[in-house]
Amino acid sequence: MAGKLQLPPLQVLVVFEAAARHGNFTAAGNELGLTQPAVSQRIQMLENLLNGPLFERRHRGVQLTESGAALYQIVRASLMEISEQLERTRHQRSTLRIDTDMGFASYWLLPRMNALQALIPGVEVQVSTSPNDYNFRDSNAHLAIYFGNGNWPGTQAQRLFPEDVVPVCNHKIISRLGDNSPPSELLNYPLLKLPETRPQRWLTWDDWFRAQGVPQQHHADSRTYNAYSLVIQAAVEGQGIALGWRPLVAAFLESKQLFVCGPEVRTERGYYLLSSGGKPASLQQEKVIAWLLNEAWNFHHQPYLLPEYK
Asked: Which terms does the record give in the GO molecular function aspect (predicted)?
């Protein structure tokens, strides 16, 4: 760890810079709202600390000594840099960063961004996505929304959505399947999926068929995509049947781009709202947290967005 800086009071350096720039203690005092004796006193304090003169006192003003001139260059540059940084900070917009995954950002958060931005005017909302599991210690986010079991050390986790999963397909496939087709019928179509993870992070097709009592078996026509947006796009285009996580596919179901084609399965996992467990939330963060929780509650209580399997 770096040692304590050996510096005189900042005001002394400010007075020295003004006196050196003007070449006159009285002019420096007029600029800073100090008397000439007060300026002289502070310069004397700095000279005592340095054990040497910084100015040659003359009848009509002062002139920097060699050591005074060298110090002036450093002090002037440093104070200018501080001043410029303060000015940049003063005009810099406040920011609020939310980390999440691409699927949630694309299908749930992005359609609500205008409402979120209106909640905190003047604050730049930044959304950052990652396909990896969340690690709060490695993130600079103020808030995060991630999928898992609710156990992220160092965070306060509040569940927004449980893991409710239904098979979904486009109108052509649902018209062939018909109403109340047995789950085993889905094996006659390509199954669209994400790559498997170890440990398992979300529901898989094997999990879904097991929950329906359908014997596990290899499905040769499965198609794997490395992003959930590709899985959903393939389903919309009729390339097969996908697993749909309720909050992510609700808009597709409402617009009838996709249809529920099998029973729902719920697990103990879900999407969680994460905030730091070690420090209080700012007023802006509290507003966003309350808004997100309310939006999730409204979603749960709008059944027309969640067509059931019939």
From this structure: DNA-binding transcription factor activity; sequence-specific DNA binding
Q: pTM of the entire structure? A: 0.68
State the Cα–Cα distance between residues 222 and 4, nearest whole angstrom.
Answer: 63
| Domain range annotation of the chain | 10-91, 96-305
Helix (H) or strand (E) holding 145: strand 143-148
- What pLDDT is recorded for position 2? 52
pLDDT one-digit tens code per residue, 143-178 = 999 999 988 888 889 999 999 999 999 999 999 998
Which phi-psi region, left, alpha or beta, contains residue 81 (left: φ > 0; alpha: ψ -120 to 50)? Answer: alpha
Token pair 């496939």 in the structure block, residue: 173
Please tell us whether the domain made up of 96-305 is placed in CATH 3.40.190.290: yes
pLDDT digits (tens, 9 = 90+) for 51-85: 999 999 887 889 999 999 999 999 999 999 988 88
Answer yes or no: is pLDDT of 211 > 80: yes
Q: Residue 193, Cα to own-chain centre: how many angstroms?
A: 27
Looking at residue 225, its pLDDT comes to 93
Strand partners, 123: 94
* DSSP SS3 for 53: coil
List CB contacts of 123: < 8 A, sequence separation 6 or more. 93, 94, 95, 96, 117, 284
The CATH architecture that domain 10-91 belongs to is Orthogonal Bundle (1.10)
* Distance, CA of 72 to CA of 272 (rounded, Å): 55
